[in-house]
Amino acid sequence: MLGSEFKRGVVTTLERVFKSSNYAFDTLEFQWYGTGASIQFTQYPGTRILDATFRFPNVDDNGQIPRKTMPKFVAMALHELGHAWYTDNEPWDVHRGNPVLCRLINGLEDPRIEKKVIDSGIAGNARSLFENLINEMMGGSYVQPDDFGNLAFQLAVEGRRMNGYKIAMPPVLDRSRYKEPMQWALKKAHKAKSTLEIVQIAVELLERLNALKPVAPPPEGEKDGPPNGAGGDDPGDPGGKPDDEGPGDEGPGDKPDEGGDKGDTDDDDDGDKSETGDGTGDDETGETGDDGDGNEPGDSTDQPGDDVGNEAGNEAGDKRGDDESDGPGAGAGTQEERDVEPDMGKEMQPYGATVDATNEPRPACDKPTIYKFTWD
């Protein structure tokens, strides 16, 4: 389909979803430029009125976009809209200075808000859209069990598996040195009713993960003491032994300030079995009552059951953007860090308009403005 038709289909679909919710938008804007996907939103205190701006990868109006791209893109947009409805920015923003912690928060929050969107009934085929999207994000591969830098990605995948999604790749968490704290966090997050609870869980999780991180061994030349019997205990001696703490103890993901919220620190040993990888999604989440974070649309009575994304003739299937940078040393794994937040920027690059190379804003599908001139 033409790029202009693709953009019109996405916008029309989301506008229809908005009307099915019990939220209203004072301003709603779609921008198609840049390389990633994100949403910026503000809720008016004490109301269900939002200002929202979607920013999507740039798309050439005259380019040819594969039809199979539409359901994935709509799923990504619906995920971003879920953040506008159910994510409370304030407790998350407190930790923006710690990118490792922010990735953990993101990995726990994403499955929660998708479950809320599904349970609301606003989009009838939201589950199948989200399920296909996460499998597309995995791309037929998973991460190494002990890869510290990709633990947030494991949370994002396994949290969705607990939602009941059919994930193509088997879980690897059972083989991870971080299995116990990760399973604890997933169980807690599966029952969480607000972003604040998710943040508290993530703060405690990071402390538990740091406690399990292996200590880096001393450099090869320092293992057997200084050469030629040189004095090793003099701190000014280049051949001296390293300090007792050992280099690299802190590494990425340094513990947050001791005064930060730690959430519930019990082990949740209340008879719940580990729910990672069981694919049942039968926990007591999914309630559509008050979310406690001020962004809860409540019990939707519309229940339209519409198949989101079908305007383009596609079968159902298939950031808040991941705007926090990963910073120096974030993620100590051996693999490249996987995107936690759905983002089709790379996939859409071949269909971008060269005029948007400078990332200047362009309207989505605005109606033409008619100008009248008086000729003397």
How would you describe this structure to a colleague?
This protein has 376 residues and is mainly alpha-helical. It has a domain at 66-218 and 249-346. Helix content is 33%, strand content 6%. Strands 1-3-2 form a 3-stranded mixed beta sheet, covered by helices on one side. The two termini are 45 Å apart. The model is unreliable at 229-333 (pLDDT under 50).
Question: What is the topology?
Answer:
Elements: H1 3-20, E1 24-32, E2 38-43, E3 49-56, H2 69-86, H3 89-93, H4 99-120, H5 126-138, H6 151-162, H7 179-191, H8 195-212, H9 345-348
Parallel strand pairs: 1-3
Antiparallel strand pairs: 2-3
Helix pairs in contact: 1-2, 2-4, 2-5, 4-6, 4-7, 4-8, 6-7, 7-8
Task: Sum this structure up briefly.
This protein is mainly alpha-helical.
Q: Return the string of H and E elements.
A: HEEEHHHHHHHH
Number of β-strand runs: 3
The number of helices is: 9
pLDDT under 50 segments (min length 5)? 229-333
Report the structural category: mainly alpha
Mean pLDDT, nearest integer?
74
Instruction: Describe the strand arrangement of the main beta sheet, using strand numbers.
Output: 1-3-2
The whole-angstrom Rg is: 24 Å
The largest sheet is:
3 strands, mixed
Q: Shape from CA axes?
A: globular
Question: How far apart lie the N and C ends?
Answer: 45 Å
Q: Strand fraction band?
A: 5-15%
Helix content: 25-40%
Keywords:
mainly alpha; 33% helix; 3-stranded mixed sheet; 376 residues; 9 helices; 6% strand
